[in-house]
Write a structure and sequence with these properties.
- The complex is a heterodimer of chains A (288) and B (290).
- Chain A is 26% helix and 12% strand.
- Chain A has 288 residues and is of the alpha+beta class.
- With 290 residues, chain B is mostly helical.
- Among the domains of chain B are: 80 residues, no CATH class; 101 residues, no CATH class.
- Helix content of chain B is 51%, strand content 7%.
- Chain B has 14 helices and five strands.
- In chain B, the strands form two sheets. In chain B, strands 1-2-3 form a three-stranded antiparallel beta sheet.
- The chains are: A alpha+beta (288), B mainly alpha (290).
- Chains A and B meet through helix 1, helix 2, helix 3 and strand 1 of A and strand 1, strand 2, helix 3, helix 4 and helix 7 of B.
Chain lengths: 288, 290
């Protein structure tokens, strides 16, 4: 090899070595960063996003952490995540127990958002889904204890739709009614007013991000009563009348077994006796 | 590099007086602190000149400005911003195409105050040596942040970006952001000279790419007056940009074309012979190829 070729080869080798070193070093940094970023896309349960926020995985790409929503919130209840907080640094959130969303009709936070992180198509604040209220603690909820607290029900901005009171018999006293708050996910906006207002030391009703709070039936589930109403009648054939084939003069009683019935004097032309056994309502065709 | 002068700028102060020898430095600090103050009088005094932060801001309800590097990350992560943010990007790119991409680094970015302080202290404490990395590392980091954004579908870099963490922290509440900033400060002080801004920061790398085409440059109308005092090298945060233009290496025109130049203007300040000045790149012949 000529000296020129040697020099050329060694610079090429140097270049490749430098490139490999840089790619590996920066690549390692990138791997760490990527894993860290993936971990931070799960929202902690106490943190709620402003109204119209995209699902968390998309939100962490769409939100540019500018804080315009924080600035334009007239109630100043939004804050930006600090680096030590367990979510994407700089993204907006609120904590219902500290300061809930006041559900402004004109939704200024969405208007302020320069990206699609807060969905600009959301015009009606009652359609917001910031989270879902869940009455998590039946043991400390005052209404469950038989008191007429009702505060969560009364402060709810979507009263009688998002939270209703379901009267139930108080088994402890035997003759009182418990008014059980029931949250309806179709109407609850997740504003957090109920959690903020709950008078117990630690709130019995809490607002969680939807992914934590909402269950889902399997896709193949059908509710019989809904299907029946849709079809305008029963979808299954009524049950055939059950025939009891007992030895003559015998009857069957639950728990007692067969016993003889006293011989009745029946006129020959009379209809045969109808069994006195009451068929359960649900088994009488057409009611399913 | 041969020994740099211990007190860069002493000659210039003698020749021009203290104020002219600090003119651009003072203007730069005024700009950095002024921009920060404009953001701060909102939360401090309820006087809303500008809302938001350096990622996206809205001035006096008319002027949207957004960070093109950040929106590029959002784009590769699969998100398209709304109209105002796009207008903001166009304005910002247009602006830096005129004043020089890395003008952002030296005239706007709050981290520059931190790293300049680290560098000043490093010089005064006589700290030498430290880790070595090529200055091209920042472009690798820039590429990495975009790849990670695309791969994870998140703005991953924003989780740790000291630039936005500091600026947002100062305006919206610091939290543990000071630790990130202290890390950058200590890194520049003890580990690597001009380490963060000069070698690693992908934000600066991105603005430097814009700067490849930008109009305003440091020009050298009197490069033949240079007396090799080395003061400009001593103060320049991107020393490598000076030599080709100053020494006419390979017939380079008297204009600093390297886009790593931050247009800080400190070389203009410290030169007692007035070699440097701000000017437009178009007034000078293109570099003569080899």
């Amino acid at each position: 090899m000529t000296p020129e070729k040697v020099a050329k080869g060694s610079t090429r080798r140097q270049f490749l070595a430098d490139t490999a070193r840089m790619a590996c070093g920066v690549g390692m940094l990138g791997l760490g960063l990527g894993l860290y970023a993936r971990h931070a896309t799960a929202l902690p349960p106490a943190a709620l996003r402003p109204p119209g926020a995209l699902p968390e995985t998309e939100f962490s790409a769409a939100c540019i952490r500018c804080g315009m929503c924080v600035r334009d919130c007239p109630y100043d209840m939004l804050q930006l995540a600090k680096p030590e907080e367990p979510m994407s640094t700089g993204t907006p959130y609120f904590v219902a127990r500290q300061a809930p969303c006041e559900m402004c009709e004109d939704i200024p936070c969405i208007k302020a958002c320069p990206t699609g992180a807060l969905d600009h198509a959301l015009k009606d604040i009652t359609k917001a889904k910031m989270g879902l209220a869940v009455l998590v603690d039946h043991e400390t909820c005052l209404n469950f204890l038989g008191l007429r607290c009702d505060i969560c029900y009364r402060v709810c901005p979507v009263i009688d739709k998002a939270i209703t009171l379901d009267p139930q018999r108080n088994a402890r006293t035997g003759d009182h009614t418990m008014f059980i708050p029931v949250v309806h996910s179709d109407a609850c906006t997740g504003c957090g007013k109920c959690e903020k207002a709950c008078p117990t030391e630690i709130a019995a009703i809490k607002v969680f991000p939807l992914y934590m709070a909402k269950g889902q039936l399997s896709a193949h589930y059908r509710l019989g009563w809904v299907e029946k109403e849709k079809a305008g009648g029963s979808l299954v054939a009524p049950d055939a009348e059950h025939q009891y084939n007992m030895p003559e003069g015998m009857k069957y009683e639950y728990g007692k077994g067969l016993s003889a019935t006293p011989q009745e004097t029946v006129p020959n032309n009379a209809v045969p006796p109808v069994p006195t056994f009451a068929v359960p309502k649900a088994l009488q065709g057409g009611k399913l | 590099m041969s020994a740099l002068p211990l007190k860069p700028g002493a000659e210039a102060i003698e020749a021009k007086g203290w104020l002219p020898a600090h003119k651009w430095l003072l203007m730069r600090r005024t700009s950095q602190l002024g921009i920060l103050l404009a953001f701060l009088v909102g939360p401090w005094l309820d006087l809303w000149i500008v809302k938001g932060n350096l990622n996206y801001s809205y001035t006096l309800g008319v002027l949207p400005l957004s960070d093109p590097y950040l929106l590029l990350q959002a784009l590769v992560a699969g998100q398209v911003p709304e109209k105002l943010a796009l207008i903001g990007v166009a304005i910002v790119i247009g602006f830096y195409l005129i004043v020089g991409g890395r003008g952002y680094c030296s005239w706007v970015c709050p981290v520059n105050l931190v790293t300049d302080l680290a560098n000043w202290l490093r010089a005064h404490l006589g700290l030498k040596g430290g880790a070595h990395l090529t200055r091209a590392t920042r472009y690798w980091v820039l590429a990495m942040t975009l790849i990670v954004a695309a791969a994870t579908g998140t703005l991953a870099w924003e989780m740790i970006n000291p630039v936005s963490i500091l600026h947002r922290g100062l305006i919206f509440g610091l939290g543990f952001a000071w630790m990130v900033i202290l890390t950058v400060f200590l890194f520049d002080l003890f580990v690597m000279r001009h380490g963060w801004c000069g070698h690693l920061c992908p934000v600066g790398a991105f603005y430097s790419l814009i700067g490849k085409f930008s109009a305003m440059r440091v020009v050298l109308p009197q490069r033949e007056a240079c007396n090799d005092c080395m003061d400009c090298y001593a103060v320049c945060p991107e020393q490598q940009v000076i030599r080709p233009a100053l020494k006419a290496i390979d017939g380079t025109a008297p204009i600093i074309l390297d886009s790593a130049c931050t247009n800080c203007g400190r070389c203009i300040d410290v030169c007692s012979k007035d070699v440097f000045a701000f000017g437009a790149r178009f007034n000078h012949a293109a570099p003569i190829p080899k």
